[in-house]
Amino acid sequence: MHIEEYIAARVKELCEKYHVSKYRLAQLTGMSQTAVGNIMKMESIPTIPTLEKICDAFGITLAQFFAGEGRRPDLSKEQREIIETWDELGRDERRILIQFVRSLKNK
């Protein structure tokens, strides 16, 4: 797979996962809908700063963008376990866990 194919597929995958339309992604990144569409249709390859804007819109890093779904680069086994557990929690459970972790930090 060529890089433009990978990037287009990954952006589409992230849009589907996070229920973000092309219009909304353009708003979140400050890009035009045409520019976002060109990336998704493989008519242009984004620069690194543009990819960073896209990653910021989805709350991921460039490393996570290129690692793909389900892979978490540069994390220890324990960190991956925490994140995998987090992914399985509901919204209320996540809120409680965040409060607990913050309370540990303040001790």
TrEMBL record:
Name assigned to this protein: Helix-turn-helix transcriptional regulator
Signal peptide as annotated in the record: none
A UniProt-annotated Pfam family: HTH_3
Domain HTH cro/C1-type intervals: 11-65
GO molecular function: DNA binding
Superkingdom classification of source: Bacteria
Organism: Dorea formicigenerans
